[in-house]
Specification:
Oligomer: single chain
Largest sheet: none
Strand content: under 5%
Structural class: mainly alpha
Number of domains: 1
Distance between the termini: 55 Å
């Protein structure tokens, strides 16, 4: 799977120029627009893909969790891009697209995307927008109302949200045999795995041994009845596989992305949005082991690296020109 992350990263950073970034971003937004149309066609039973026929979600080509993460990222990016647009028609078009994207996020059924969406909006609101009634309505109230109207008029989504609350309550009563319950159960299961004499809280269980150790822990603890082949968390997986060092390497990956020195205000916004999107989505799922998400991460990590390198080169040239000639 590594080729889906590192080969695209290598290609993008060595061939793409700074001036081409805007075209890549437009292409990405347009591709999400196509996916959105297909999603709505599936939702109203006018079209089906081979993937959607077997999954039960109105998503054409991706797992609904992955799709919801991409939609959450795209909708907030579109909202931000619309703020500085001078052309009224384009601004209205992007705002409408934002509404349809938010609604599409609702019907896709990916609860990970819901969390990414609202946490990102809340954090970016305090970073980027001056406190005012207008910014509050546009950035927080308007998306929230759109989201909950979509939930109210979609019985499947409303039932899923109620099921979420029910699953949390069941987990409080030590019933972990639900979607959310199993995610919560992996934390005590992790503790059980690492306290075994052959494993270690410092070094983990070792690469390649995780699934067998999970099966043994499930049999010992009896917390869950149905086995899943992974821990449903990128952070937990990094820690259990590679110990403290594995988790530190993953956190350093995020830290050095955050430390990239980018001055361009649009790409700085994308940097913050992307890091939020990435770090939150890794909490409830193993996002970095999925092909589509690895290519998505490669694309935007490359864009940020290209911008960082270009700005650094420009700064170095300016610094050289400032040196007095002797």
């Amino acid at each position: 799977m590594w080729r889906y992350l590192f080969i695209p990263l290598l290609i993008y950073t060595t061939t793409v120029q700074k001036d081409e970034i805007k075209y890549i971003l437009h292409a990405f937004v347009f591709s999400m627009f196509i996916n959105e149309i297909i999603s709505y066609l599936i939702y109203v039973d006018l079209y089906q893909t081979e993937f959607s026929k077997t999954r039960g979600y109105p998503v054409g080509f991706l797992n609904h969790i992955q799709y919801s993460v991409l939609v959450a990222f795209s909708s907030i990016l579109i909202l931000y891009q619309s703020l500085d647009m001078k052309n009224l028609f384009t601004k209205i078009l992007y705002r409408v697209f934002f509404v349809t994207m938010t609604t599409n996020l609702v019907i896709s059924g990916g609860r990970t995307g819901y969390i990414v969406y609202f946490v990102s909006l809340l954090v970016l609101f305090f970073i980027y927008f001056k406190p005012s009634i207008k910014s509050f309505i546009l950035v927080l109230l308007f998306p929230t109302v759109t989201f909950f109207i979509g939930c109210k008029y979609n019985s499947q989504v409303e039932a899923r949200m109620l099921a979420t609350l029910n699953e949390i309550n069941q987990a409080k009563n030590n019933n972990y045999n639900t979607s959310i319950g199993m995610r919560l159960a992996y934390y005590p299961l992790t503790y059980d795995m690492l306290k075994q004499p052959e494993n270690s809280f410092l070094y983990g269980v070792g690469m390649g041994d995780l699934e067998q150790e999970m099966i043994k822990a499930e049999q010992r603890t009896k917390l869950i009845k149905h086995h899943l082949p992974h821990l449903h968390s990128s952070y937990l997986t990094a820690y259990v596989n590679g110990g403290i060092m594995g988790l530190i390497l993953l956190l350093l990956f995020l830290y050095y992305l955050l430390k990239l020195n980018i001055k361009d205000k649009d790409l700085l916004f994308i940097k913050y949005l992307f890091i939020l999107n990435m770090s939150i989505s890794m909490l409830p799922d193993i996002i970095l082991t999925q092909k589509t998400m690895m290519i998505y991460f490669s694309l935007f990590i490359s864009i940020l690296l290209i911008q960082h390198n270009t700005e650094q080169e420009t700064k170095e040239k300016e610094d050289i020109l400032k040196v007095p000639f002797i």
